[in-house]
Amino acid sequence: MYSVEYLPLADNDIDEIFNYILNVLKNKAAAHKLKIELIKIIEKITIFPYGSPIYNGNLKYEYRREMVKNFLIFYVVDEKNRKIIISRILYKKMNYLAILK
């Protein structure tokens, strides 16, 4: 099993997502469901880090991605340290190629 590290940008993404769902949409149930799904998917990634496809966008890092509802988790596998580095969690309709560069 791999450990998990969240980059500060990923932490910020999570804060913004939940702030929007809770304060703008005012949907506590949706926020709770999303939280449960994120936890499940990230746990799966720690067990099978290479199970998600590589995002081919000619980027500096070999990002892998996993979808959770309307969001994409972008992460890097640090094999040397047996660590999953969560880089970003972005809304699926965003221009994430531009954001990841």
Rounded to an integer in angstroms, the radius of gyration calculated over CA atoms is: 14 Å
Considering the protein shown, what is the CATH homologous superfamily? RelE-like
Structurally, how many domains make up the residues?
A: 1
Structural class, please?
alpha+beta
Q: Please outline the major beta sheet.
A: 4 strands, mixed
Q: What is the tally of helical segments?
A: 3
Query: How many beta-strand elements?
Result: 4
Ranges where pLDDT stays below 50 over 5 or more residues in a row are none
Tell me the overall shape.
globular
CATH architecture descriptor: 2-Layer Sandwich
How much of the sequence lies in strands comes to: 25-35%
Fraction of residues in helices? 40-55%
From the 3D structure, determine the CATH topology.
YaeB-like fold
What's the arrangement of strands in the largest beta sheet?
1-4-3-2
Distance between the termini: 29 Å
Average pLDDT level: 93
By CATH reckoning, the class would read Alpha Beta
Order of helices and strands: EHHEEEH
